[in-house]
Write a structure and sequence with these properties.
Blueprint (H helix, E strand, L loop, with lengths): L7 E5 L10 E4 L9 E4 L5 E4 L1 H12 L4 H4 L2
Antiparallel strand pairs: 1-2, 2-3, 3-4
Length: 71
Amino acid sequence: MSGLDGLEPVATFCGSCDCGCPQLFVDADAPAERRIVLTDDFGQRVQMSADQFASLLDEAKAGRLDSAAKA
């Protein structure tokens, strides 16, 4: 996937194939509000702050995102 140079990989979601799985990165050179980068397998990306990502993690840990995984 292009445009990911300089990003620190954190996690790959799936990883059992070679299809360009969604990935989570940290962009240390980005402004604080865009430091977390989530890519999908279609080449799109979402950027958010570490605080926003922490909020997402809190929601997931509390089980409030479980219904989205059952779709």
